[in-house]
From TrEMBL:
Record-linked Pfam families: 7tm_3 (PF00003), ANF_receptor (PF01094), NCD3G (PF07562)
Protein localization: Cell membrane
Residues of the signal peptide: none
Ranges of Polar residues composition bias in the record: 730-746
Species assigned in the record: Mytilus coruscus (Sea mussel)
Keywords linked to the UniProt accession: Cell membrane, Disulfide bond, G-protein coupled receptor, Glycoprotein, Membrane, Receptor, Signal, Transducer, Transmembrane, Transmembrane helix
Similarity annotation: Belongs to the G-protein coupled receptor 3 family.
Domain of life where this protein originates: Eukaryota
Primary subcellular site in the record, as a coarse category: membrane
A Gene Ontology molecular function term of the record: G protein-coupled receptor activity
Region entry Disordered, spans: 727-746
Species lineage: Eukaryota, Metazoa, Spiralia, Lophotrochozoa, Mollusca
Membrane topology according to the record: Multi-pass membrane protein
Protein name as catalogued: GRM8
Amino acid sequence: MYKGSISTMLISRKRVFLVIPQISYASTSIDLSDKSRYEYFSRVVPPDSYQAQAMVDIAEYFGWNYVITIQDEGNYGDKGIGAFKERATFSGICIAKSFVISRDPTKDLFKETVDDLFKIKKAKVIVMFVNEDNAKHLLEAVMHANKTSELWFLASDSWGAKVHPVVGQEQAAEGAITLLPKRSDIKEFDDYFSNLTLKNNKQNLWFQEYWGEVYNCSKGNIKLHNCTKHKYEQEGLVQFVIDSVYALAHALHNYLQSKCTTVMRHCPLLNSPNRQELLEFIRNVSFTGIVGDVVEFNSQGDGMGRYDVYQYQKLSTDGYGYVKIGEWIDRLKINSSFLNWKEAEPNEVPNSVCSEPCTFGHKKEKVEREHAACCWICIPCGPNQYLVDEKTCKDCDDGFRPSDNVTSCKPLPLLTLEWNSLWVILPIAFSSFGIVSTILTIAVFIKFNNTPIIMASGRELCYVLLVGILMAYGTSLIMLATPSIILCTIIRLGLGVSLCLIYAAMLTKTNRIYRIFNNGIKAMVKRPSYTSPKSQIIICMALVSVQIVGGLTWLGFEKPDTIYTRQHTEFQVLKCKASQIAIIASLTYNIVLIILCTIYGIKTRKIPQNFNEAKCIAFTMYSTCIVWLAFGAIYFGASSDFKIEVTSLCMCVSISATVALPHKNVRQGASMYNNSYKSGRQNSFGSFPLPCPNGNLFNNLNANTQITQTTYNDVFSDDMDDLSCDEDANVNNNSTQTGNPENHSE
């Protein structure tokens, strides 16, 4: 209590009772807990440090983290607000501004203070450690400003539940929350005190003065009937006065019982007790007080921290009054059903914050160093970030995304190719048709393996070509499956090798045709080297081996594995782990083969019509170049969509295999089922009657082509090694016209 603390400290400073054990019923100053200065002082009321903590807890309960403080000049205000600020800092409560009321304030000072309060826009709660007179003057200034609904008060026990500060200022005080040390009215004392009169209480020298002040009677008035008792109200300190008296009585009783060995009335300690020993008994006393609470002291000689919490409200029936809304005994307990704020907004808790809480997915960014705990701006976290705490955003790990409330990460849903989707059905259908066609072609080749047309077509390279085509179709199907380490290994090797088999076989064929006709046109005098089937296979396999070695080297440096990658931030995709550079390097070799094969196709485009296989291979290369150019644009341009990426790669491989599949490009106008099979021979470059090894001339060459029989036999003898001639057969020009489509099936 304000005045009690001052009185006690003044007495102690004069050292009147400095070494005499004392028990106070009203002194609450924090300084009195300093036992180096007030060793023998004890009190049944709690120090203001407890009250400051209770006020901080109240501010936290209502979410007030930006407040203003007002204090009286002097020990009570300094220590009370000082304790509040210290505890507020640990609770994240900021002080917008602090005001000090001087010892002799004027009305202008209160007016200026209130005007300054209204200038602080966001802080609406005023924490007060002022005496009741200053509290009254502040409320008067608020009333005069006519802004009673803009400020709210949280006041200490010097305001408490007193009527004096609020009389005439009810509208300004409405909604104020105040504290008082926990107390109860004592009915027995009321009964006793109500029966006291000037006649029966003459032994109390101050009773007449009290009587005249409380009951509005003049001190010299002896007409007692003019004095009425309707204004009597029990003082709030009665409980503590009684408890302090009993505390000293219990301590003396315990002390004398413990120390006196003789009859009590003859004990010498009655006249000269040991002060230090008596102090120890006072500090160790514990008993049930007058209202049923336990009375005891802590190590500093302070009473237990127990407070009642009141709110000044407009009552429904009888004006204004204080309503008990809770209590503080080590921790705060508020009955929210008893709360009633100002009439305009009775159920809405006042707002006194510097910054509103950030919404989901936003972090706090400091804007004021002084009030960093309370003032901030809200900044959204990144699209793949979550809130570690209210001030920090952190990226989710790969394969995770922020949860709905952005406080953690959750696994990204796995996006896969559905087997019933068009993205899968189309490549499967195309590849399946290609596989069936390739198998049928291989079957035809095997069935007619020893026929002149198959043998003369360079069957060894044709088989290599067909195997490459079949592998390409199969690889495109594997790419549609869910990736695994085994499948990724197959895809990494199979994609490059299958295409290499196709283009190596074609390059070897076109190169052979080019060398033969280039020498023939220049008047060949000897057979070109490395044109035999065995040589062609060796050349082809040498070309393929480069791709195989490159693929195995790639596997050595970068182990096959799977990886989860993010797709549009909302999904993750399981892919084969491979760098773009490695993929491009693997395909570059095949692109080189395509370019070389295309070049040879261009160079051999003017060979005789009957030698049209090179022309068809050239057309295949043109088509392949267009396919791969289109694929590059789609694949790398839509790499963010794995469906397009996978489907485009599968279709590119399948189409490349399809355009290379042998059809009419093997022979034009030649059939294994007409008479030419019996009467003529066909080499690997054109459709015309071939001579038997005995040297019969061939027919139907282009008029501009001049090739001697000797040169022809030297060049094409390898294709005819396994053929047997019908010695009785005569060359019938009418039945072996290679340019007549009516005589040949397609």
